Amino acid sequence: MAQTIEGFVGNALDDAKISPLHVKVIALIAAGYFFDVIDLIVLGALIPDMIQSKFATGAEAAWIGSATVFGMFLGGIGQGEFSDRWGRKTVYQFNLLIFGVFTILGALAPTVMWLVAARFIAGLGLGGEQPLAFAYAGEYSPKAIRGRILAIVHFIGGACVWPISTLFTLYFRESIGWRGVWIVIGIGALIVWVLRFVLPESPRYLATHGRGKEAIDVLGKMGI
Fold this sequence. Notes:
The chain is mainly alpha-helical. Helices cover 83% and strands 0% of the residues.
């Protein structure tokens, strides 16, 4: 029986065996998610340092946190429309780029208002990155183990990050300060952003958007 390209690609990915490309995709998705979550975890620990250093008052510190959350809200709303229009990888990469760049710029902010603006834009990247990480990983995952793969992404980026971020902040906050902690997070995110350029677009996305030849090429890289 004849199959559409969408059906063929979907069935091939659902029944695929784990390949080196699968491992690379999942590892780099989890790494990006790690830096997203670590930013949210350390924010509360850094606010007392901002207040103690006289950079911000308590009320101003609340604006910093609120700007991040509001940015995440807007980023989360828009990511579905944007990723369907421009592709999973393109939007995924853009989200991590603006998160990394504006996390560093926020760390270098001369005033509270500059930091609030930087945190809002970084929040846009955060809000778009996190749900798209699971959508991107899910589209690559074989059907039989999709739940386990998504659990691995969440374990690395959602569970392991808590003890690592806590120990990192406790150990380094005195020596590098709240600005230094954010700079390290931003640099880490940008390193992952560079490494993720090797990842191909989701074959499912390509197949459903008239780019069947590219989807078949990606399947070939996966040994299918």
